[in-house]
Write a structure and sequence with these properties.
This protein has 492 residues and is of the alpha+beta class. The protein contains 15 helices and 19 strands. It has two domains: 139 residues, Nucleic acid-binding proteins (OB fold (Dihydrolipoamide Acetyltransferase, E2P)); 254 residues, BirA Bifunctional Protein, domain 2 (2-Layer Sandwich). Helix content is 35%, strand content 24%.
Length: 492
């Protein structure tokens, strides 16, 4: 089997053949009358106009297969909209052009063809080529057809080849675009204004995560890449008189990678003044059902061994009660030592020894056992520094997260708008940060000042790529076009 270097050398020789024949291997323009998808869907109508006795038509695409020999060759073209067959007959095309195609063109090249539409004896819609030109000469081959890219690292590093060889992966990205498009459509129809908020912040807010730190040269100032989609900024918009806002944007968290976690991903956050928790849950449940139905054409899924039916009533479970039921620990009253002992007994690894991290780790152990769709409610105040306290139990908050297949896929709460309470909670988070908890939330005194001017009762909610990935039954990394990769080591 020839090496990559030998294959490239052969293709360079074919490049020289094209140049010698007067063809520019990389032209800036190639004649194209229709996409291949348009030809496939409108073939009967187009054949009447561009058939044997009609006018010529020009098409383009990447060659995905070549077969045949002697006086007839068949090439399968793909332009990203569909695949279509081009037929080269020695007696219907200039002999030099036919010979040049046979000797200088490879699978992976992009070509333009001109000819007439017809149907082969086997019933294959095709174009009978009367002339052709090179559009792009590929100097390296595509992966072998039947196996594609097998190495995961190579797949992500050469994602463009992965897309070429796996149309289902391309379809996944189209589906993801539809997911966000429908989200935007439904929110806009419900009176939400799409906004843009800063991605560089002096203090991070809106989530508990370790941020990426960088430096602003002009201001000589350290800044952070945001860890939420502008939560504290969108709340400022609520105070500024905007009744409903949302943003779909990138988020950056300097944390570990897993099937459900990446350092860079897309989230949506919305904020609605005068919407309480119960009406917010009802609204976002309808929102998610609408988006999911229109994206996936179903509300029934099999994900990670779970059967999930989103058309059924979504149940609710209490955060504290669920942990106590599954572990025997009441996270509101247990000592830190009791919580640590419980985690050791459950054989769960944990980082840090403050109550917030221990509480969160106990919950994550329980979460994996819940299929959903289930709303998790009544989170402790300690793990919800921006949520309003429950009027019936001040140690808990008015917060709700949707659980699917053992994973949190959304987050929403009645936003804390009491500036005195918010200042106190920021102080608690500050102590956690000073104690070495890198995921604790930074205090933002300018945000507290805004609350002192007054922010209306507000409901906030978010979901993101994780929801799409879970329902697609794919790791989050697989649903991204170009996930972050370590640079490839140069071998000397």
């Amino acid at each position: 089997m020839a090496s990559i270097e030998e294959l490239r050398a052969t293709r360079l020789e074919k490049l020289a053949l094209l140049k010698k024949a007067g063809m520019n291997p990389y032209p800036s323009k190639v004649a194209r009358d229709f996409s291949l998808g348009e030809v496939k869907t409108q073939f009967i109508e187009l054949e009447k106009k561009h058939g044997e006795n009609g006018t010529l038509v020009s098409l383009t695409g990447r060659i995905m297969a070549i077969r045949g020999q002697g006086a007839i060759l068949f090439a399968v073209l793909d332009d990203g909209t569909a695949k279509f067959q081009a037929v080269f007959k020695k007696d219907t095309i200039d002999e030099k052009l036919f010979s040049l195609f046979a000797n200088a063109v490879d699978i992976g090249d992009f070509i333009g063809v001109t000819g007439t539409l017809f149907v082969t004896q086997r019933g294959e819609q095709s174009i009978l080529v009367s002339s052709w030109t090179i559009a792009t000469k590929a100097l390296l081959p595509l992966p072998e057809k039947w196996h594609g890219l097998q190495d995961t690292d190579e797949r992500y590093r050469k994602r463009y080849l992965d897309f070429v060889m796996d149309p289902a992966l391309r379809d996944l990205l189209y589906k993801k675009a539809r997911f966000w498009g429908v989200t935007r459509k439904i929110l806009t129809e419900n009176g939400f204004l799409e906004v843009e908020t800063p991605t560089l912040e002096v203090t991070t807010g809106g989530a508990e995560a370790t941020p990426f730190k960088t430096h602003h040269n002009d201001y000589d100032l350290d800044v952070y890449m945001r860890i939420s989609v502008g939560e504290l900024w969108q709340k400022r918009l609520m105070a500024g008189g905007f009744p409903r806002t949302f943003e779909i944007g990138r988020v950056y968290r300097n944390e570990g990678s897993s099937p459900d976690h990446l350092q860079e991903f897309t989230n949506m956050e919305l904020y609605a003044s005068y919407m309480d928790l119960d009406s917010g849950i009802a609204f976002t449940e309808d929102l998610m059902k609408g988006v999911i139905k229109e994206t996936f054409n179903t509300l029934q899924f099999e994900v990670r061994g779970y059967k999930i039916d989103l058309s059924l009533q979504w149940s609710r479970i209490d955060y504290v009660e669920t942990i106590q039921k599954m572990t025997g620990i009441n996270v509101l009253t247990a000592s830190q030592k009791e919580m640590e002992n419980a985690l050791v007994k459950l054989k769960v690894k944990y980082d840090g020894t403050n109550r917030e991290r221990l509480t969160d780790t106990l919950w994550k152990y329980c979460r994996k056992q819940i299929a959903g769709p289930t709303w998790l409610v009544n989170h402790p105040k300690l793990v919800s520094p921006l949520a309003k306290a429950s009027p019936t139990d001040p140690e808990k908050t008015l917060r709700a997260q949707l659980i699917l297949a053992g994973v949190e896929v959304s987050n929403g709460y009645a936003e804390l708008n009491n500036p005195l309470d918010q200042r106190e909670r920021f102080e608690t988070q500050k102590k956690l940060l000073e104690g070495g908890d890198t995921e604790a939330m930074m205090e933002d005194q300018e945000f507290v000042e805004m609350l002192e001017h007054g922010m209306p009762p507000t409901f906030g909610f978010s979901y993101g790529e994780r929801l799409f990935a879970i329902l697609s039954d794919k790791p989050l990394r697989e649903t991204q076009a170009f996930p972050l990769m370590k640079p490839k080591e140069n071998k000397k």
